[in-house]
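An instance follows:
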Amino acid sequence: MDVSIIFVNYNTVTLLINAINSVVDKTKGISYEIIVVDNASSDGAHRLLIDKFNNRIEYIQLSENIGFGRANNEGIKIAQGKNIFLLNPDTILKNNAIKFLSDYLDNNDKVGVVGANLYNEDNSHQPSFSLYYPSIGYEMSNLFHVLFFYERETFNKTMFPLVAKRVVGAALMVKKSIIEEVGGFDPRFFMYAEEDELCYRVRKAGYKIVNVPQAQIMHLDGKSFQFSEQRQKRKLEGLRTFYKISYSSFYCQILRVVEYLTIISRLIIFKVLNKPEEIVYWVFMYNNRKWQ
């Protein structure tokens, strides 16, 4: 088996069916299996998927919502593929992306993780990787970026693979042998930043993280910006969990200071520029500036 494709579903069955349809339609020239791990959804996913795809799907029903990383770990336990493709339900393959990613892993011994170029529904570019880990340098770039001193590269506009620090978890492929070596997702994460921490461990083990631009995937999460307090809280929890797992307490104290300076500077700038939507976001960040 070349690839095990793992989806985590939580009340996204309509999106999931479209994603699986795109896998079946676009994936050629490799053997694969599809595993769906259901985080205790109430959308009737099991029946609908069996009706639609028959025995083409391995379905794991969980009794509670255990989060993104831990649910993927359950899928990885039964995966038969030599490569594991973690794919979000809100994705649509634009081409034979799975084969492009799998072939690259197979042909490069020192590469542990690969990711695709991601696109919005209107075909505009979506952040697909990062050249930074969450770190003091990353937080400093947040601070300086708003002051127009810093530019980031998050999308590969060339046709050449690009070595990164981490790739977006919406479409992340990893060698199963690497998972067996460094472990799966850390269970201390519920949602967000768990792929950053996995990429961090993979690189520490001596393997590269690579964006493969030939692999093209639409990610519907990027259709528009909508501020969601619950979602942002999850992102903050994930990011701060990464910091506490990966760095010393002294390092985290510095991170808190830089984060605070970023919040204050952006509040000042957006108030001067009269940007009410941005102010709502940064007021939220100010109210949640204390780490748990």
Summary: The longest strand covers residues 208-219.
